[in-house]
Amino acid sequence: MKFFIPVLSLFLLLHSPINAQENTEIDSIKNTIPFQHDSLKIKSYVLLFDKKLRKNPDLAKTYLDSANTIYKKTKKTNSAFLLNKLGKYYNRISNYKKVEETTKQLIAINLKNNNQKRLATDYKNLGNIQQKIGNYEEAAKNVLISLKIKEELGFTDKSKGSNYATLVKIYGKINNIEKSNFYNSEWEKVCLKYSDTNRLATVWNNYAVNYKKLKDYNKAATFFRKSAAINEKNKNYVNLANNYNNLGNLYLSKDSLKIAENYLLKALKAGEISDRKNEIAVTLNNLGNLNNRLGNYNKAIDYLERSEKISIEINHRLLLITTYSQFTKAYQGLKKFKNALAYYRARSSIKDSILKKESVDKINELEIKYQTEKKEQQIALQEKEITVLEQQAEIGTLQKILLGGLLVISLIGFYGIRQKLKRNKLEKEKVDAELAFKKKELTTHALHLAKKNEVLESLKQKAQELKEREESKNGYQQLIRTINFDLQDDNNWENFSRYFEEVHKDFNSNVKIKYPQVTSNELRLLALLKMNLSSKEIASILNISGEGIKKARYRLRKKLDITTEDSLQDLVLSL
């Protein structure tokens, strides 16, 4: 009887009139929790989390933490359920890197359980987050995986609309306007079919963005205003901030700076009302651009510093590219060329890591493969239907019955095989994604090692110079010894070797078997050559001079008996 009362209380709460005071409702839920059993406590905490997430995400997180504590103790609910809520929290505070991590964990759980419906949603969500942080190749791959699953399982057009929406953004970002507009038209059909005016506003905003890229500013302005009119009516401040930002940028392009400023300030207000960090950061960046154009460089830097802080916090690398570009212009305007150069280099570094031509080509290649496979499946299905009709025309009633039975058995077998192949394919894609992630970690670790050693070597030289100038040399000598110790620290190399072995399995053992005369230092050099690093990067990691690298490569060629016509790099890559 003691559990009946709290269960009944919670039931009445969930079905109370919608105009009940929120605080009273929350207090009532809290009061019932001490009397509930664990599984119901988890549901109550999640209910509190849902109610507080929009207005007070930090408080909502404390409720979710309480639910997770009970789950870890009892495991009386689905871990994927709580993980999904955690992803929503990180998305609310615009921590997209954490959203990506939690979504990958959800995919691993649902792959294990072969939950295809959930996987369709998870892959779409993962792709959507990855396009926000500029990982377009992975984003396209995952959204297309999701779309394929949805088509195979017979999802509604409304469900596919979210995939179309993300693909519009991805292809727009890599300037494949034709493909972006294709998916936008598909999404527009869905919105019109279901009379979804909210999303129709986003569709029109997308058309406007693409027209702007094509420099058709009149059409772009028309669609931006149509979109803004709907969002104003529906008080959708998140999308409204985006509309105003786009209109501000449009008028910046036309050098109508006063009109541009008016729209951008409205965008900032809408972004602050919606409390979405991403929109606020974008608006601040645009205001920095505007003030650069007006020659108000110090004011531009104020806006840009605020934008940079938020962009770093939410890991918005793509926005940082434009922010650093605007910083460069501002400091050039102030004739602070050292600062301008620093931001120019920071911009180039991020841009090179995101917008590589290979990634763009890979995305387009994925799209072609997806469309080709889809058409092949349609053709195969039509041919199968024709074959069945021809057979039905030739056989008698008894044969039809027999054939029908066999066909049912065959279809059951075929479905089982297809499901198994699908699971194997998804598992392979998961393994490939993990390997790609490890390769990125390995490269990052190697470059970090090179940079660290480069900085330490520079610091050591500076200390040496100061030591020779100063009378008291003991302090500088101690500093130099400390730097030498760090430069020669094998722990850094052991960490690197662990990453390397995870990506290039059995490389070291293969080298030792084939070339037993190779020393441990030469094995290090071979590993770095395998990663295709530059001589300068290898020199920094091994803490030797550029001339030393040349000598080490020469000795290695002799030991491996490589002729002058053969390439050491090609040999290493083949191992």
UniProtKB/TrEMBL annotation:
What is the source species?
Croceitalea marina
Q: Where are the transmembrane segments?
A: 401-417
* Keyword flag Lyase: no
Keyword list (alphabetical) reads: Coiled coil, Membrane, Signal, TPR repeat, Transmembrane, Transmembrane helix
Q: Coiled-coil annotation: which residues?
A: 356-392, 423-476
Domain HTH luxR-type: where? 515-572
Among Pfam families, the record links this protein to: TPR_12
Segment forming the signal sequence: 1-20
The protein here is known as: Tetratricopeptide repeat protein
Q: Where are the TPR repeats?
A: 201-234, 281-314
Gene3D superfamilies from the xrefs? Answer: Tetratricopeptide repeat domain, Winged helix-like DNA-binding domain superfamily/Winged helix DNA-binding domain
Transmembrane helix as a keyword of this entry, yes or no, is yes
Q: What is the superkingdom listed in this entry's lineage?
A: Bacteria
> What PROSITE patterns has UniProt attached to this entry?
TPR
